[in-house]
Amino acid sequence: HTQGQGQGQGQVAYVPQQAWIQNATIQNNILFGQPMQGLKYSETLHSCALEPDLEILPGGDQTEIGEKGINLSGGQKQRVSLARAVYQEADVYLLDDPLSAVDSHVGKHIFEKVIGPEGMIRNKTRILVTHGINYLPQCDQIVVMNGGRISEIGSYGELIDADGAFAEFIRVYSGVGEEDGEDAPSVSEYTEYCEENLNLEQSDSHGALDPSVFSDDPETRSRRRAHGQHLEKKRISESSTRDKKERKRHVSKSELKRQLSRQMSSEVGEKKASAEHTDKSTLIKQEKVETGSVHMSVLFAYVRACTYPLSLLTILFYLLTNGASLASNFWLADWSNSNTPENRNQTVTACDSLNSLAQRSGCYLGVYGALGIIQSFLILFAAFSLALSAIFASRTLHNSMLKNILRSPMSFFDTTPLGRILNRFSKDTYIIDEVIPRSLRSFIFTFLSVMATLIVIVVTTPPFLVIIVPLLILYAIIQRFYVATSRQLKRLESTTRSPIYSHFQESVMGVSSIRAYRVQQRFVLQSEEQVDYNQLAYYPSICSNRWLAIRLEFMGNLIILFAALFVVIQRNYQEEIKIRINAGLVGLSISYALQVSHVSFC
């Protein structure tokens, strides 16, 4: 448990022991929001020993790094993290053992070029946590920790003279540390050797001879041979250049055309090579967005996951439920007609054959109640079968997805952000668990309700058949516009949701670095931008639903209008059209027509 307060002035840069790398290019990881300065950037790469790594990577500093730096080694990640801190030019540097993940000779180079008294940040305040005793003599102040407490403070010489626990530790382990630091060649020594060769070539090219060239030691002889080979290549290159110039003077028109053709072919080849180079430097591929209608194979895959028997049973129960509802409403219409004066002496149903009014009412009430009870049980069975089907489908699809993820090669995780995988297992699984069953229930219920309404209206007023065809054409036009738009907006909304999860997960992993660099506001704005970009697809999806609701409401009102209009026409012209009107069925027809306009679509 720690207590206390900390105060500081100036900008702080933090290099954690476990390097935090963003899913971006190496250049963007180093810049970290700062403007590009070529000289400082190159010096930072050299000081942090990143130049050899950039030569190996396919895209150089434009190579995209996967989440958590998955395509970099531990030492490379640590050096990128250190380069980020160095490039910021902060006032205070908190270095949590940054040399632990690099080789000894690379660590020596980094200490000399970055952290040490001659390094890039020599004029800054540096707090270095380290277990490497080789670097201690060059530190201004040493704080020795023992058991979570400060045991000694002082310079290297003061602590050695004190002859305490620190001096004893140095005497015991200094031999091992020095050997580790001296056996391996230093990166700075290799750089000096390269500069010597470069100076040698430059002096020869200007006609000045270095006396060391005539030395007989092995190192100089090897340098002399390399230099001679270089001069020979240069002489051959100059000779071939002169020959080419002479040939160009006497070239014919046909040869010029051939050369132009070869030049164009080489340019095309260079463009292709550049495109391939860009593809190699891009690690994370864009999430593919499907276009067009949903394939029937997708629908059959969901039905298979629900199991065929349960799918058929669910449809059967909903059909029986709607049939029971339709039967109870027709029975209620006959019951209301049986009490009218013109139908009182007619036998329409078995209940009409009873003598007393009480017996007839009891018979109608008993049948109506029985139909209601049957309908209740059918609704219960339909809900159970649909829920069971949804559970089977959700379990099957989730287990299949989990199985594929666990058996995927490591390259899949290199090129797929964790936010994309999290999106599949969170929002998409939620849609399979809850949204699809609810939408499926609404679809079946709405479809059967509309069919029942049309049946009742046609039975009551047969001329309504003339209006069905224009209504179906109008509905097909609306459906063609809405379904294509809504489907693609849903796909885009699902695709743009993955970067939100990725950015949030990345921010949580690097929260200590984000707070140390004091860039919380920038990451909050980036998260808000991801959410806003997602809303660009989500908000139009809601608007398209309202667009559909208005037009379906209009179609429902048309059904009510024509249903009532044909009832009035049939009532006034019964003898001409020779169709007898039934008051109970008319009421049933109008009530069903009213239900259509109140169906909610989501």
What would your notes on this structure say?
The strands form two sheets. This protein has a three-stranded parallel sheet with strand order 1-2-3. Strands 4-5 form a two-stranded antiparallel ribbon. With about 600 residues, it is mostly helical. A hairpin with a 2-residue loop joins strand 4 and strand 5. It contains 20 helices and five strands. The radius of gyration is 41 Å and the shape is elongated.
- Low-pLDDT regions: 176-221, 230-236, 238-254, 270-278
What global shape is seen? elongated
The description of the largest β-sheet is: 3 strands, parallel
Percent in strands: under 5%
Please give the radius of gyration in angstroms.
41 Å
Question: What class would the helix/strand composition place it in?
Answer: mainly alpha
Distance between the first and last residues' Cα: 53 Å
**Quick check: average pLDDT?**
77
Question: How would the blueprint of this fold be written?
Answer:
Layout: E1 12-15, H1 26-31, H2 38-47, H3 51-56, H4 74-88, E2 92-96, H5 104-115, E3 125-129, E4 142-146, E5 149-154, H6 156-162, H7 165-183, H8 187-205, H9 218-249, H10 253-281, H11 296-306, H12 308-338, H13 357-406, H14 410-415, H15 418-460, H16 465-509, H17 511-517, H18 520-572, H19 574-577, H20 583-597
Parallel strand pairs: 1-2, 2-3
Antiparallel strand pairs: 4-5
